[in-house]
Design goal:
- It contains 2 helices and 5 strands, in the order βαββαββ.
- The chain has 89 residues and is an alpha+beta fold.
- The chain has a 5-stranded mixed β-sheet with strand order 4-1-3-2-5, with helices on one face.
- The longest helix has 14 residues.
């Protein structure tokens, strides 16, 4: 298991990005969070198997491509602190 932190830039706040992310995450075997950041980006932390996280990120990028200008991904070992996938408000 791994953890990927994904920072997504663009017009990603105020367009339902977190809710779309949350709904898509339910279709994948991943745990983690999604939240709006003060700088206008969206931060996703996802834990699971690499292939599952990659498929999730690819599906999200395809679904929300018109709003995204940049995707930055950082990978590290999973912390196993997440039990579900949720939105942080």
């Amino acid at each position: 298991m791994i953890q990927k932190t994904v920072i997504i830039s663009g017009r990603v706040q105020g367009v339902g990005f977190r809710y779309t992310t949350y709904n898509l995450a339910e279709s994948f075997d991943i745990q983690g969070t999604v939240q709006n950041m003060p700088d206008g980006t969206v931060k996703i932390v996802a834990e699971g198997e690499n292939d599952e996280i990659e498929s999730f990120i690819d599906t999200l990028a395809d679904t929300m491509q018109r709003y995204i200008t940049e995707v930055c991904v950082d990978q590290r070992p999973a912390t196993k602190q997440y039990k579900t996938f949720e939105i942080i408000y």
